[in-house]
Specification:
The complex is a heterodimer of chains A (about 550) and B (about 775).
Chain A (H helix, E strand, L loop, with lengths): L19 E5 L9 H5 L5 E12 L8 E12 L12 H5 L5 E5 L17 E4 L8 H4 L1 E2 L21 E4 L9 E4 L2 E4 L8 E4 L2 E3 L9 H16 L7 E2 L7 H4 L7 E5 L6 H7 L9 E5 L10 E3 L6 H7 L7 E3 L9 H15 L6 E6 L4 H9 L7 E4 L5 E5 H6 L4 H14 L8 E4 L8 H11 L3 E4 L1 H8 L26 H4 L4 H23 L16 E3 L2 H7 L2 E2 L2
Parallel strand pairs in A: 11-21, 12-13, 13-14, 14-17, 17-18, 18-20, 20-21, 22-23
Antiparallel strand pairs in A: 1-4, 2-3, 5-19, 6-22, 7-10, 8-9, 15-16
Helix pairs in contact in A: 4-15, 9-11, 12-15, 13-15
Chain B lengths: L3 E4 L1 E2 L2 E2 L2 H13 L4 E7 L15 E8 L12 E5 L12 E7 L13 E6 L21 E4 L15 E4 L23 E4 L11 E4 L3 H17 L6 H4 L7 E5 L2 H9 L4 H13 L27 E5 L7 H5 L6 H9 L3 H7 L7 H8 L3 H5 L1 H5 L6 H7 L15 E5 L3 H12 L3 E5 L7 H6 L7 H12 L4 E3 L6 H10 L2 E4 L5 E2 L11 E2 H9 L10 E5 L3 H12 L4 E5 L8 H10 L2 E3 L4 E5 L4 E4 L4 E3 L2 E4 L3 E2 L11 E2 L2 E2 L12 E3 L9 H20 L32 H7 L11 H5 L5 E5 L5 E5 L9 H5 L5 E5 L2
Parallel strand pairs in B: 1-4, 4-5, 5-6, 6-7, 7-8, 8-9, 9-10, 10-11, 15-16, 15-18, 16-17, 18-31, 20-27, 21-22, 21-27, 22-23
Antiparallel strand pairs in B: 2-3, 11-13, 12-13, 14-34, 19-28, 24-25, 25-26, 29-30, 32-33
Helix pairs in contact in B: 7-8, 7-21, 9-12, 13-20, 17-18, 18-19
The chains are: A alpha/beta (about 550), B alpha/beta (about 775).
Chain lengths: ~550, ~775
C-alpha cells in the first residue's frame, strides 16, 4: 500500500532478529575502517551518531544540554547484508573493539527466503550436538593381559586398501613349479595401499587456486617427505593439466560426476601422464545435499575455472542430480565402472560414491557382483558443501554410522568384508575429532574415511560452524580466501601454510590413530570391523550398530 | 673364607622365593658376610640387603629366577656362576652384579645405581628405563657380546657398555630399534648398529674423557667376568668405539625445525614436478604473493569516489520551478549573501510573491531537515529577501522575436527568461493587469499587493513589449504566429467548471468572486451563510474572502477528503471555515437558500460558490493545434504539434503557480536551444537518497524566532552537493583524502589510492552524501 508518511523502520528486521549482532566498543575504536574495509558482506559500515544529554548540576533543575556528534561503526539491519559472524572484523581490529556475537534467538530462518528464493549456503548440516560418531568410545583397552602396544614406541602400519582385495582362491593365479603365475590373461584388480583418512572431493572451482594448490601440495609432501600415503579426491571440475602430467598424479583420485566437467582435458592428458591416478571416483550423490546436484555459482566461474572445466565464463554451473544418460543406478554403475576402468586399461581402481541412503545396500550388493568395482564410497548427511539449498543441507541425507554399519554387516554376511572396501564420509571430524571419528568408522567396518570440511577448518582456518557462522562459500566472498575465485581475497591465503597444515593434520592423525589402535593391540592391520572395541552409552544406538552398550 | 650356604631345595622340595628371601635376610642379619646360594628358580635373590660396613657377597649357583639382584643395595655383591633369567638388577639401587653367562630380557630395567657385569650377551629390553640420580654414581651395565631388541628404551641415566665380542647378530649389536625414548645416559658400543632412534639419540665419537673412563674401568670388568685376556683387544683403539647419547631438549627442538620446509618442498619438489608458478600458473596472471586483509590500491574490493552534484537535492528536485536552494545557501555560507539572493532571479521573476507567499513550498516539505529534524530551511524567507533584488543582467540583444500570449505566471516566466536571454519578447494580456491568477485570485491576506507590484515592476524593466487588455483572437493569433519565431501560449484556464445540478445557475463561480474582490467590487455578506462547493486551496481562499466580506458562517464541502493543504487551509480554518465531506450536491434551492446533498442533508446557503477548477478558453486557437481533453496537448518541454507553437501553464494542465513558472523556464530554454541550434538538456538527475545523508551532524533549530539569511545558510544540509566541511578529510584515518583547489576557483576532494583501504568512512560520515563507495571493477 501507499504510505501515508515517509516510512521509517516499519518493515525492517531489528538487530535482535539477526543471527549475529555486532558489539562495537566506541571508546576503543580508532575509526581506522579496517573492519568495514574487510567485511565480506558489508554488514557493518561507517556512520554518524548523535549523543545528547541534558545535565543539571545544581540543586534545582538548571538544565544544560551536551550534544556530541561523531563517527562510528554501525551494523546494517538488512537481511541481505546480515552479519555472518565470521569475525574478520575482530581479526583486523588493532584494538579488539569489534566482535560479532551469536544471537541464539534470531529470526533468520523466517526471513531467509527473500524474493521467493530459498536460502542457499555452504557449510554442513547446522546441527550442533554431538554426532553419533562422537558418542562412540573405544572401550576395549588392553592392559598387560593382551599384548599391549605403545603408540610412541611400537611400529604401526596405518594403511588401508583402495581396490578389490580378492582372497587367494579367487585370484586368477596358479602355482607352477613353485612359482605363482597368472592364468591366461587374467584381470587382477588394481589395489592401492593408502592412508585410511583421505581428503574428500572438493573441486577446483569450489575452492580457490591457493586453497586447492595448498591441499595438493600438502598431499604431495605427505607422500614424498613423510611417507604417509594420503590421497585426495579432486571433486568434480577437473584438474589442472600441469598436475595431471606431473609425477604427483598418483596421489589423487579423479572424480567424475554428473556434470562431466573437466573430463576432456583429463582424457587429452592421458598419453602424457607420468603415472596413473590413485583411483577414479564416480560421484552419484553428495551426502551433504542428496538430490541437490552440484552448483557452482556464476560469480565463481572465472577464466581459469572456465578453462579447466570446459565451459563459458560467468555462468551458473549445475551438475544435475543424476547422470543424464543413465536410467538406473545399476546401469549407471555397470557402465561407468567399466568405462572408467577401460580408460586406464584396468590399472586404476574405480568405485562409485553415493550419498548415504536407506537403499545403499542395493547398490552395494550390485557392486559386490561387479568384478571391476574397486570400492564403495558412502557419504553421510554431515558432509560439507560449497553451495546447496539450506533445506537439503539440514534435512536431507542419512547419518553415516548405521548406513555404513549395515553395509559392512551385509558384506560379512556374504563373506566379502574387506574384499570390497567401504569408504565412509560425512561429518568425519565435525567436532574436531578427526582420528577418533575415523577410527570409529573403521571399527564399524569402513576401510577408510573422507574428510572435507574438517580439512578446510584445520588447514585454512575455515570459519564455518554449525551456528551458521560464515557459511557463505557459495557467494565467492569467503573471507579466508578458501572458496573464492577473487584474487583480491584468495591471495590472503598462503598455499604453503595450507600445505603445512595439511601435513600437520595427517601426521597428527597418524599418531592419534596409533594412540587409539595401540591399546587395542592392533598395529599391523587396521581394525576394520573390530566392533567389539566400540561402546556407546546410548542403548538404542548400541543396538542399531550392534556394538557394546557401556555406561 | 667362611661361606653360609643356602640351598634352593630342602626336604620339602623347592624352597619358595618368599622363604629363600627370608633365609637370606636372616643370615645377613645374623652377621654372615658371604653367602653361597644354590638357586632353584627363586626370584629376587640378593635384593634389599641393606648396606653393612663390610658388605655382603652372594655367590649364586644353580638356576636363579627372575629379578636377581632386583632392588639390590649398595654393598651387595652378587656373582652368578651361570646365566641369569629376566630382569637381572631390576630397580638396582647399588648392587654389583656379575653374571658369568648371559642375561635374558630386561636386565637392569629401571636400574639406578650399581653395576651389572655380563659375561655373555643381553636379551631384549635390557637397560631400559635406567635412572639418573646425582646423589650417587651412575648405574653401569656391561655386556660382553651384544644385546637384544629394544635396548635402552626410555633410558634416562647411567652407562651401558656393549663390547660386541662375538655378537649373535654381527650386523647390529644393539638389536632392533634401540634407544627409543632415551633421554639420558651414555651407551658405549663397539661394532655395527642400525635403527637407533634418531629422534631421541645420536651417535657420537668418544671424547678423551670417555676413553679415559672406559679404559680405566675395563680391567675390573674383564677381571670380574673372567675375560682379562681381552683387555688389549678392547682397549687398543678409541676409534673402534662409538657412543650414543640422548638428544638434548635443544637438539630435539632444532631437529624438529629441520623438518623440510614447505617453501623448500615447493621449490625442490613441487614446482619441478608441476612447473614454475604452480598448477594454476597457466591460467592466472596474478602475482605469486600473499596480500594482507587490509589493502590499498588495486587490491581494494571497494573504492570511494567524490561524486559531487551527482544527485539532485530534494529542494531543487521537488521545486517545479527548479530553484536550486542549496546553491543559494552555499553562497550564503560563503558570505555572498547578495549573490545568493540574486541567484533565484535566474529561475523565477517572483521569488517574493511565489516562494515568499503563495507557493506551498514543496522544497520545504521535502527538505531533508523537514524529514529528520522537522525544521526545513525557510525558503519563504529567502524568497522575500529577494523582493528588492534586481533582475539579472540581460544578455546581448538578439534579433529573434518570441511572442507570449497570456500574462499570468506561466507567460510572465517565459517572457522573463527569454527577455533575459536577449530576445524581442511581446506579451499579450487580455486583462488590464499582469499577473493572471496571482493578481486576480490570491487574497490580500495571503499576498500583500505591493509585493506583486514590486516584482512586476522588476519584470517590466526588462523591456518586454507588453500589450495589456489585448485579448488574442484567431486573427491576432495568426498575425502573432506569422511575425514570431516562436509563440508561447499561456492563457491559463479561466472558464469555471460547474456541475449542472438543479439551481446551478444561482451558484457563483469562485473565480468570478475572487476577480470581483481584486477589482474592488466587494459583496456585502454581513451575517450571511456561505457554502463553498469544492474545498481545494482556491476554495479555502474563497472562504477567507467570504469572511472578509462579512459572512457569518462559511462551510466548504467536497465530495472527498479535501485537496487543500498548507497555509490556505490553515488560514481558512483560523477564520472559522469548516469543511464537510463527502457531500455530493443534489440541488440548490435558491428560494429557500438551502443547498441539498444526495445524502439527504442540507446546509443553509445565502450564497453558494462553486470552486472545482477552471478550464482553458481556447476560441483563438486554430483547429490544427491538438488538444487533450480541453487542454493544449504538448510534450514535456511544452511544444505543441505546431513546432513553432508552445503552451505552458494551466492551459496545458492544471497546476500550481510554481508549475507554471517552471514551465516558463523550460520552454524558454527549449525555444532558445531551437533558435540557437544548441542542445537542450533537462536535469535528469535523481533525488539524493535520504539514506546517504548524515543528518546527525545537524541539530534542530532550538533558539526559535529570528531567522536570517545566515541561519538558513548554515542550516541547509547541502544534500548531494559538497558542503566543503572537510569531515571526510578529517575522518580518513589513512590520510588518503585531500582537497584540491583548481585555478578556476572550483575544488574537489581526491583520494590517494595508495593510501585508501576502501573502508567507506568518507561515504559513511559525509553529511551531504557526496561520497560513493562502489565495488572495485
Amino acid at each position: 500500500m501507499e504510505s501515508a508518511e515517509r516510512l521509517d523502520v516499519n518493515h525492517q528486521l531489528g538487530l535482535s532478529d539477526l543471527p549475529y549482532v555486532i558489539q562495537w566498543n566506541d571508546a576503543a575504536c580508532t575509526r581506522c575502517g579496517r573492519c568495514t574495509s574487510i567485511c565480506p558482506v558489508q554488514a557493518i559500515e561507517p556512520g554518524v551518531y548523535e549523543r545528547r544529554v541534558v545535565e543539571s548540576t545544581g540543586s534545582t533543575p538548571l538544565p544544560t544540554t551536551v550534544r556530541k556528534v561523531g563517527s562510528c561503526i554501525k551494523q546494517v539491519v538488512d537481511i541481505n547484508r546480515r552479519c555472518i559472524g565470521c569475525a574478520t572484523c575482530r581479526q583486523v581490529c588493532p584494538n579488539d573493539a569489534i566482535v560479532p556475537v551469536f544471537n541464539p534467538r534470531n529470526k533468520f530462518a523466517w526471513h531467509m527466503n527473500q524474493g521467493g528464493e530459498p536460502y542457499k549456503r555452504g557449510g554442513r548440516r547446522n546441527e550442533t550436538g554431538a554426532s553419533v560418531l562422537d558418542q562412540l568410545k573405544f572401550t576395549r583397552i588392553s592392559m598387560l593381559t593382551d599384548p599391549a602396544l605403545d603408540a610412541g614406541r611400537h611400529e604401526f602400519r596405518v594403511r588401508t586398501y583402495l581396490g578389490r582385495n580378492l582372497p587367494p582362491e579367487k585370484l586368477p593365479l596358479k602355482v607352477d613349479g613353485g612359482l605363482l603365475l597368472p592364468e591366461g590373461m587374467p584381470f587382477i584388480p588394481p589395489v592401492r595401499e593408502i592412508f585410511p583418512i583421505r581428503i574428500g572431493g572438493m573441486s577446483v572451482g569450489a575452492l580457490s587456486p591457493h586453497m586447492w594448490e595448498g591441499l595438493a601440495m600438502g598431499i604431495a609432501y605427505l607422500n614424498e617427505v613423510e611417507n604417509i600415503p594420503v590421497v585426495m579426491c579432486t571433486g568434480e571440475g577437473g584438474m589442472p593439466p600441469r598436475l595431471l602430467k606431473s609425477p604427483f598424479l598418483k596421489y589423487f583420485i579423479l572424480q567424475i560426476a554428473s556434470g562431466y566437467f573437466g573430463w576432456d582435458e583429463i582424457v587429452h592428458a592421458i598419453p602424457d601422464m607420468q603415472c596413473d591416478p590413485a583411483g577414479i571416483e564416480i560421484k552419484y550423490g553428495q551426502g551433504a545435499k542428496p538430490g541437490d546436484g552440484g552448483l557452482l555459482m556464476a560469480s565463481k566461474v572465472l577464466k581459469h575455472i572456465a578453462k579447466i572445466r570446459g565451459v563459458p565464463e560467468f555462468v551458473d554451473l549445475a551438475s544435475p542430480p543424476t547422470h543424464q544418460t543413465k536410467y538406473s543406478i545399476e546401469e549407471a554403475v555397470a557402465k561407468m565402472v567399466t568405462a572408467m576402468s577401460m580408460a586406464w586399461n584396468f590399472r586404476v581402481p574405480v568405485y562409485p560414491k553415493i550419498s548415504g541412503t536407506r537403499t545403499a545396500l542395493a547398490v552395494l550388493n550390485n557392486l559386490a557382483r561387479n568384478p571391476f568395482a574397486a570400492a564403495l564410497g558412502i557419504d553421510g548427511e554431515d558432509g560439507g558443501t560449497g553451495a546447496a539449498y539450506n533445506v537439503s543441507l539440514d534435512k536431507m541425507g542419512h547419518p553415516i554410522a548405521s548406513n555404513l554399519r549395515e553395509c559392512y554387516l551385509n558384506l560379512v554376511k556374504i563373506g566379502a568384508q574387506n574384499e570390497l572396501p567401504l569408504f565412509a564420509a560425512g561429518g568425519v571430524g565435525k567436532q574436531g575429532n578427526l582420528a577418533a571419528n575415523a577410527a570409529a568408522l573403521i571399527m564399524l567396518g569402513a576401510s577408510g574415511v573422507d574428510c572435507g570440511k574438517y580439512i578446510m577448518q584445520a588447514a585454512a582456518g575455515c570459519l564455518g560452524d554449525e551456528h551458521n557462522r560464515c557459511n557463505i562459500c557459495n557467494t565467492g566472498k569467503c573471507p579466508k580466501g578458501i572458496t573464492t575465485q577473487d584474487p583480491r581475497i584468495f591471495r590472503r591465503l598462503d598455499p604453503d601454510m595450507v600445505a603445512q597444515r595439511v601435513v600437520d593434520v595427517f601426521v597428527a592423525a597418524d599418531k592419534e590413530l596409533k594412540k587409539i589402535f595401540a591399546p587395542m593391540g592392533r598395529s599391523t592391520e587396521l581394525p576394520i570391523g573390530m566392533s567389539d572395541g566400540l561402546s556407546v552409552s546410548d542403548a538404542a544406538v548400541a543396538k542399531r550398530l550392534e556394538i557394546n552398550y557401556a555406561c | 673364607m667362611r661361606s653360609f650356604e643356602i640351598s634352593g631345595r630342602d626336604e620339602k622340595g623347592r624352597v619358595p622365593s618368599k622363604e629363600m628371601d627370608a633365609r637370606i635376610q636372616a643370615a645377613v642379619k645374623g652377621g654372615e658376610k658371604h653367602l653361597t646360594i644354590d638357586a632353584d628358580g627363586q626370584h629376587g635373590i640378593g635384593g634389599r640387603i641393606w648396606p653393612s660396613e663390610e658388605g655382603v657377597t652372594l655367590e649364586v649357583n644353580g638356576y636363579p629366577g627372575q629379578r636377581l639382584g632386583g632392588m639390590g643395595m649398595l654393598g651387595t655383591k652378587i656373582v652368578v656362576n651361570t646365566s641369569a633369567s629376566d630382569d637381572v638388577g631390576w630397580v638396582n639401587c647399588g648392587a654389583e652384579i656379575t653374571v658369568l653367562g648371559d642375561v635374558s630380557n630386561g636386565a637392569h630395567n629401571a636400574g639406578a645405581q650399581g653395576k651389572l657385569y655380563v659375561q655373555g650377551g643381553g636379551g631384549a629390553r635390557c637397560d631400559t628405563l635406567t635412572k639418573f640420580n646425582p646423589r650417587f654414581a651412575p648405574v653401569e651395565s656391561w655386556y660382553f657380546r651384544d644385546v637384544g631388541d629394544s635396548f635402552a628404551e626410555f633410558k634416562a641415566g647411567g652407562i651401558a657398555v656393549v663390547c660386541g665380542v662375538d655378537p649373535r647378530n654381527p650386523e647390529n649389536i644393539l638389536g632392533y630399534r634401540s634407544c627409543v625414548g632415551m633421554v639420558g645416559g651414555t651407551i658405549y658400543f663397539r661394532g655395527p648398529v642400525e635403527g637407533v632412534s634418531e629422534k631421541d639419540a645420536r651417535i657420537a665419537e668418544l671424547t678423551d674423557a670417555d676413553w679415559e673412563w672406559l679404559t680405566s674401568n675395563f680391567p675390573a670388568y674383564l677381571e670380574a667376568i673372567d675375560r682379562a685376556g681381552y683387555l688389549e683387544e678392547l682397549t687398543k683403539s678409541k676409534e673402534d668405539w662409538k657412543k650414543i647419547v640422548s638428544l638434548t631438549p635443544q637438539e630435539r627442538v632444532s631437529k624438529g625445525a629441520k623438518r623440510l620446509s614447505m617453501e623448500a618442498f615447493r621449490q625442490g619438489t613441487w614446482e619441478p614436478g608441476v612447473g614454475k608458478g604452480g598448477i594454476f600458473a597457466d591460467y592466472l596472471d596474478i602475482d605469486h604473493t600473499i596480500i594482507p586483509y587490509v589493502v590499498t590500491g588495486e587490491n581494494r574490493r571497494f573504492v570511494p569516489s567524490w561524486d559531487n552534484d551527482r544527485y539532485a537535492p530534494p529542494c531543487a528536485y521537488n521545486c517545479p520551478t527548479g530553484i536550486p536552494t542549496h546553491e543559494r545557501t552555499k553562497l550564503i555560507r560563503e558570505g555572498k549573501e547578495d549573490a545568493a539572493l540574486d541567484l533565484v532571479l535566474r529561475y523565477s521573476p517572483f521569488p517574493g510573491t511565489v516562494c515568499g507567499y503563495v507557493c506551498p513550498n514543496l522544497c520545504m516539505e521535502s527538505c531533508t531537515r523537514s524529514i529528520f529534524l522537522s525544521d526545513p530551511v525557510d525558503v519563504t524567507l529567502l524568497g522575500r529577501l529577494s523582493i528588492d533584488r534586481p533582475a539579472p543582467a540581460k544578455e546581448k540583444a538578439r534579433n529573434e522575436k518570441v511572442s507570449v500570449v497570456g500574462g499570468g505566471p506561466a507567460g510572465l516566466s517565459a517572457a522573463y527568461q527569454l527577455a533575459l536571454k536577449g530576445y524581442n519578447v511581446s506579451l499579450y494580456e487580455g486583462e488590464d493587469n499582469l499577473g493572471g491568477k496571482i493578481h486576480y485570485c490570491i487574497p490580500e491576506d495571503r499576498l500583500p499587493g505591493e509585493v506583486l507590484s514590486k516584482e512586476l515592476s522588476r519584470f517590466k524593466e526588462l523591456g518586454v513589449d507588453i500589450h495589456l487588455s489585448t485579448k488574442v483572437d484567431a486573427d491576432l493569433y495568426h498575425k502573432i504566429h506569422d511575425e514570431s519565431d516562436a509563440v508561447i501560449l499561456a492563457t491559463g484556464s479561466h472558464s469555471p467548471r460547474t456541475i449542472p445540478f438543479p439551481g446551478y445557475e444561482h451558484v457563483l463561480p469562485g473565480i468570478v468572486f475572487l476577480k470581483e474582490i481584486t477589482a474592488g467590487i466587494e459583496r456585502d455578506l454581513s451575517g450571511k451563510k456561505v457554502v463553498v462547493i469544492g474545498a481545494g486551496n482556491v476554495g479555502m481562499d474563497i472562504c477567507v474572502e467570504a469572511f472578509n466580506c462579512g459572512a457569518a458562517e462559511v462551510v466548504a464541502v467536497d465530495i472527498q477528503k479535501p485537496a487543500s493543504f498548507g497555509k490556505e487551509q490553515k488560514m481558512a480554518a483560523a477564520r472559522g471555515a469548516t469543511i464537510q465531506y463527502p457531500k455530493f450536491t443534489d440541488h440548490y434551492d435558491f428560494e429557500e437558500k438551502k443547498i441539498h446533498f444526495t445524502d439527504g442533508t442540507y446546509l443553509d446557503a445565502d450564497l453558494a460558490i462553486i470552486s472545482i477548477g477552471e478550464t482553458p478558453e481556447l476560441e483563438y486557437l486554430p483547429k490544427e493545434v491538438d488538444l487533450d481533453r480541453g487542454h493544449i496537448r504538448v510534450d514535456s518541454v511544452g511544444q505543441s504539434n505546431d513546432p513553432k507553437v508552445f503552451a505552458i501553464g494551466d492551459v496545458t494542465k492544471p497546476g500550481l503557480i510554481t508549475n507554471a513558472i517552471g514551465d516558463g523556464v523550460r520552454v524558454a530554454e527549449y525555444v532558445h536551444s531551437l533558435i540557437t541550434k544548441t542542445e537542450y538538456e533537462d536535469d535528469k538527475r535523481t533525488i539524493v537518497p535520504y539514506e546517504k545523508l548524515s543528518f546527525e551532524w545537524f541539530d534542530r533549530e532550538r533558539e526559535g524566532g529570528a531567522v536570517s539569511c545566515s541561519t538558513e545558510g548554515g542550516k541547509c544540509m547541502s544534500c548531494g552537493s559538497c558542503r566543503d566541511c572537510h569531515i571526510c578529510e578529517h575522518s580518513c584515518y589513512w590520510n588518503a583524502i585531500s582537497r584540491v583547489e583548481h585555478d578556476n576557483g572550483t575544488y574537489e576532494y581526491v583520494v590517494d589510492s595508495d593510501k585508501c583501504i576502501g573502508c567507506g568512512f568518507c561515504a559513511g560520515v559525509c553529511p551531504c552524501g557526496i561520497w560513493e563507495l562502489s565495488a572495485a571493477g
